[in-house]
Every structure is written in C-alpha cells, then in structure tokens.
C-alpha cells in the first residue's frame, strides 16, 4: 500500500501525485502533521511529502519519485536511453536547485513581514530560468516526446509560475521555450487535473492563513 503524507498545494507533493497518476498507481494522500513529534519521526527534515510503502518510509520528493520508478518500472517516466534519463533528471534538478526561489518571491509578495533580499533572489531565479530555458525541449513534453518525470516536476512548479505571470512579471513569458511549454502543459489533461487539485488546496490554505493573520492582528 502506498501512502503519501502531504497536501496537494505543495508542488513537491503534486509531482509525486502526478507521477502516480501517470503510472496508474493508487496512492492514498494523508495530511502531513507538520511540526508534530509523529511527523518528525517520519521525516527528521520536517517537510512534506513523505511516502510510506508497506512500512518503508521515505522523505524528499525527488528521491520518492526515483524510488517509485525503481519499484514500479512500467511505464517508465525516465525513458530508455541513459542520455534520455539524464536529460529528465537534469530538468528535475534544475527546477529544484535553481528555480525554487520562485516560491520565496511569491511568499514575500503575500507576506510583507518576510524579510528577503528580493533583488538577490530575483537574480538567482533568473539564472535558474536561463538554465531551464536552455535544457527544455523546444516542442512536446519537457524532456522528450513523451511525458516524463521532468513534466511531473515542472508542471506543478508552473502552477506557481503562472501566479508570477498574473502579477505582471514576464520572467516566464519572455523565455520562448518556457512560454511554449506553459501553453502546451495547459492543454494536457493530467496537468489540468493536477493544477485543479493544487488550486483547491492552495485556496483552502490561503483562506486559513489569512484568517490566522487577522486573528493575530486583532489580539
Ligand atoms: N526538498 C524537499 C522540499 C519539500 C518542501 O519544501 N515542502 C514544504 C511544502 S511546499 C514543507 O513541507 N514545508 C514545511 C516546513 O518547512 O516546515 C522535497 O523535495 O521534498
């Protein structure tokens, strides 16, 4: 039995969900009790997602995705050739290592109390986006002509990327391959399903967060 601790609004959770859908795996989603000793025992890093597979516990989304590829190799979301598999992993790691500042920038826009060197973060993100633009496929899916883990990582990240665009930021739209992929992703049924789940979870999270902020400022 596969259980994923986390919530759909997290792009790190959503990538595993998207992979599971694409592979036809049934995976039960359970809320992650972040900050509790129980959750800390599951994941000493304290972050979601955490996978449980028949008693085997595994944190860190990309490690989870690779594990699911090893445990359930068919259909493969990595590709057959070493070069294809490397290209998929390159896109996944570029998003994680060099583009995750996007989430920080969005959070800083929502919560002015977050002290962030915006210019510095922006410069780092631009470098990451330049790399992503260079590694991304010019047509079709992110890494090749089939859906791979690169799409499972990139598409949920773009759910938040689209928010930057809505704020009038052209970071994605001025990069032709990223803009092309954004359009392409929006037409994929699986991506729309994942974005729908993310949207519902994100809205619920923001409603709760705003209510907490109001309650805190009233006291
Ligand atoms: N490198 C981690 C990142 C996971 C992550 O940042 N998760 C966030 C939710 S989007 C989280 O659990 N944050 C809670 C916290 O930091 O306390 C992964 O890939 O799983």
Automatic annotation (TrEMBL):
InterPro entries tied to this protein: Glutathione-S-Trfase_C-like (IPR010987), Glutathione-S-Trfase_C_sf (IPR036282), Glutathione_S-Trfase (IPR040079), Glutathione_S-Trfase_N (IPR004045), GST_Omega/HSP26 (IPR050983), Thioredoxin-like_sf (IPR036249)
GO CC aspect terms: cytoplasm
UniProt-listed Pfam families: GST_C_2, GST_N_3
Domain of life: Bacteria
GST C-terminal domain residues: 81-205
Domain GST N-terminal: 1-76
Protein name in the entry: Glutathione S-transferase
Biological source species: Sorangium cellulosum
